[in-house]
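Model it.
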Amino acid sequence: MAKKTGRNTKGKIIVAAWKLFYEQGYDDTTIEEIIEESGTSKGSFYHYFAGKDALLSSLSYMFDEKYEELMETLSPDMHSFDKLMYLNRELFLMVENSISLDLLAKLYSSQLTTKAEKHLLDHNRIYYKLLRHIFSDGQKKGEITKDLSVNELVKVYALCERAFLYDWCLSNGDYSLTKYAADMLPLFLEKFKI
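Modeled.
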């Protein structure tokens, strides 16, 4: 029970922080405001995070929370390829509507320069577990190629998603991330589909 309570406390801090980052900007948000918004304590904040900068890498936590929510909506009858496209669309809609471009760019730059854990590449994340499940299930059903291993398929898919996000940041959000990915991702993944 203590583990779940800890996860809830950490989650409250992360959700509050990203809400404030989006509304006020990263630089204009204080730790005190995050603590107040999350309804937690200063001790709890510093138990989970060394400071505000440590919250940058927590965006992957927000993504995983979204994936947990989306997992419940996936029909077992959906084609594996359609599941991937659905997950991508929903995540990119969330990014466009609730994650500021500056914060996303900061996350990517922090992952490039950090000597600590690279959260976006953590294969224990829900994101990677869900992708492995979809690709494995798709191979069993004969919907996804067996020319590549599940891990190779996951790596290529994740690489494509990161590329879209990175390009969108580089382009300063000048186009719809969701629409562009819906048009282009099938072209990149066509060889996966049977």
